[in-house]
């Protein structure tokens, strides 16, 4: 089926409300606005010891809370970063005023995250975390990526050590229902029938036998005041794969001071004035689907593809370009935030061809920030964002991808209309103040429910 909806059909639901699968979204109190709070973020990777992804959201949320007078602490696992970073070194990072970092580093190096991976519990990190919580005395503990800092056992520990604190978790990936987090099985296809042990072994990781049954994860989730995901598609995926508790949807946001793509000496690349091009950005790994975008370019000789990012599939992708004899595909390498924004600003569109169900798609918001439309695969959260914004096109096979690329490379009026809608939605739906208001109201409901 060659389906390229433009515009996508509009939804009658209010996309700005944090919603639960059990209760209405109306709330008047804002727990975060009542007084300054002490907030403790728990995540595996952060700051200098991170790779982007969920760490980017935690950083944006921490900064937004600190700007509003809250005291923010981020506890993360330096050992986990050292164990998984490969050739990637720590990056420059300076926490803003109001945000305090607590990196966990043991004398046993990789053994600490390995024990957590294999048991689903904080293990060697238990006592340091316990002491930090007792010192910080948080009003709110916000769990994020728990894979190597404590697993679901960390949620149980919080219920014992700081029972009065609100405890919520944002699931940024599908880690609760997939040991590899991305629902990509045996390195070659979308997971439809879980075979977690063989899939994990194929990925050269030790299987997590604690996942057999649902006891540890279920007990941890049952102690939470709220389980949050960033999209309706992700809520559905978790329910379909066995998570039975209510799940709240709270979309991501871009901060008000998000880096724009204005031309400046610090922006890499001179894309303004180039041949017409579409852009794509992300880790160069198989499940991101960049090879599908490359193959489409053989049918579009007057349009270029500029791909930003690095990853273990880069040489394979370069080989594909060579085999196809393409001269209209460019690898831009790793760009900083300003460079990515500049690349997006001058593109005809930004392509998101991921073969796995993305839980949100920050790259889409970054494109919308530059008033650039998107072309997304009909899978996971990206088409949901297109429907809410009316800011892009959706494809489901090569023919519909080529059609979408052709439309946005030739039709200036369509490109501008979709770009304007995406830009408006970025500020109306996915802005910092709206996100914090929704989050504060969600927390107020959860605090009130404890008294019932």
TrEMBL record:
Chain intervals for the UniProt region annotation (Disordered): 1-28
Assigned keywords, A-Z: Transferase
Short name of one Pfam family: Glyco_transf_4
An example molecular function term from Gene Ontology annotations: glycosyltransferase activity
UniProt domain Glycosyltransferase subfamily 4-like N-terminal: residue ranges: 52-251
Top-level division of the source organism's lineage: Bacteria
Low complexity biased stretches: 9-21
Residue ranges of domain Glycosyl transferase family in the record: 273-422
This protein's name: Glycosyl transferase group 1
Organism: Isosphaera pallida (strain ATCC 43644 / DSM 9630 / IS1B)
């Amino acid at each position: 089926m060659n389906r390229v909806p433009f515009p996508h059909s509009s939804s009658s639901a209010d996309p700005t409300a944090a919603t639960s699968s059990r209760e209405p979204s109306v709330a008047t109190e804002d727990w975060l606005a009542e007084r300054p709070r002490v907030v403790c973020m728990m995540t595996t990777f952060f700051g200098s010891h991170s790779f982007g992804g969920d760490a980017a959201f935690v950083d944006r949320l921490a900064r937004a809370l600190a700007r509003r007078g809250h005291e923010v602490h981020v506890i993360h696992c330096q050992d986990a970063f050292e164990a998984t970073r490969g050739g990637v070194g720590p990056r420059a990072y300076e926490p803003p005023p109001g945000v305090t970092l607590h990196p966990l580093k043991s004398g046993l190096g990789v053994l600490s995250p390995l024990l957590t991976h294999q048991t689903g519990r904080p293990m060697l990190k238990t006592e340091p975390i316990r002491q930090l919580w007792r010192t910080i005395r948080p009003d709110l503990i916000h769990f994020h990526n728990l894979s190597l800092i404590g697993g679901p056992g960390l949620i149980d520990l919080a219920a014992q050590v700081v029972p009065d604190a609100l405890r919520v978790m944002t699931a940024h990936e599908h880690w609760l229902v997939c040991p590899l987090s991305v629902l990509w099985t045996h390195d070659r296809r979308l997971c439809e029938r879980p075979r977690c042990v063989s899939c994990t072994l194929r990925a050269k990781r030790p299987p997590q036998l604690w996942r057999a049954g649902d006891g540890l994860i279920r007990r941890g989730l049952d102690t939470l005041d709220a389980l949050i995901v960033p999209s309706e598609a992700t809520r559905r995926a978790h329910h379909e794969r066995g998570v039975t508790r209510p799940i709240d949807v709270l979309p991501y946001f871009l901060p008000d001071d998000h880096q724009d793509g204005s031309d400046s000496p610090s922006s890499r690349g001179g894309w303004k004035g180039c041949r017409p091009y579409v852009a794509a950005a992300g880790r160069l790994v198989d499940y991101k689907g960049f090879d599908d975008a490359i193959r489409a370019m053989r049918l579009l000789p007057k349009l270029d593809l500029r791909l930003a990012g690095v990853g273990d599939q880069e040489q394979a992708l370069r080989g594909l370009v060579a085999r196809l004899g393409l001269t209209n595909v460019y690898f831009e390498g790793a760009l900083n935030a300003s460079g990515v924004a500049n690349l997006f600003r001058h593109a005809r569109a930004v392509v998101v061809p991921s073969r796995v169900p993305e839980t949100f798609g920050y790259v889409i918001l970054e494109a919308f920030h530059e008033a650039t439309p998107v072309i997304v695969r009909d899978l996971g959260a990206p088409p949901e964002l297109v429907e809410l914004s009316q800011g892009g096109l959706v494809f489901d096979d090569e023919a519909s991808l080529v059609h979408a690329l052709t439309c946005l490379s030739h039709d200036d009026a369509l490109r501008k209309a979709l770009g304007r809608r995406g830009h408006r939605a970025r500020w109306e739906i996915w802005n910092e103040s709206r996100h914090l208001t929704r989050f504060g109201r969600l927390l107020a409901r959860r605090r009130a429910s404890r008294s019932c």
